[in-house]
Specification:
By secondary structure, the protein is an alpha+beta fold. The chain has helices at 4-19, 23-26, 48-51, 58-70; strands at residues 30-40, 53-56, 76-88, 92-105, 108-124, 127-137. It is globular, with a radius of gyration of 16 Å.
Length: 151
């Protein structure tokens, strides 16, 4: 069984390596058949083209992530929050998490985005890797949940 702490470690490792463009650590975090998606929740921002992705296979995932990171600010910080397993199937587990993304503007931290992150991790030869990673950036205006559509 995959342990929650191991999933949290992988997610934390990913965001740290991603933020700091430690490209040589990325490949070992994904399965060969990895699937990555990214989008906004509304699809109505002026940066949709920059964030939209639906790529399959480790090489394609790494290529998209590298290009996206090169076009993003630094320092950039993705803080993974509330990482937990939603389904555990032995050598595979689904997880859910939030991220809070910040950057520095005029010498002060500034929130850039928040997002819902879901995915699947798989044990391969004793190493935990992402087989799926999906990010949905929050862009919809907050409102009373009882008056909204259910997600």
């Amino acid at each position: 069984m995959i342990q929650p702490a191991d999933v949290h470690e992988l997610v934390s490792h990913w965001w740290f390596a991603y933020d700091n463009a430690i490209y040589d650590e990325w490949a070992d975090m994904f399965t060969d058949d990895a699937h990555f998606t990214c989008r906004t929740d509304t699809g109505k921002t002026n940066y949709e083209e920059f964030v939209n992705a639906d790529v399959h296979g480790k090489a394609s995932v790494l290529a998209w992530q590298t290009e996206h990171r090169k076009g993003s600010p630094h320092p950039l910080r993705h803080g993974g929050e509330n990482v937990h397993i939603s389904t555990n199937r032995g050598d595979n587990a689904d997880f859910r998490s939030y991220i809070r993304v910040s950057q520095i503007i005029s010498g002060s931290p500034s929130d850039l985005s928040t997002a819902l992150v879901t995915g699947t991790v798989r044990l391969e030869g004793g190493v935990l890797r992402f087989s799926a990673l999906h990010t949905v950036l929050d862009t919809e205006e907050s409102g009373v949940i009882g008056e909204r559509k259910v997600f």
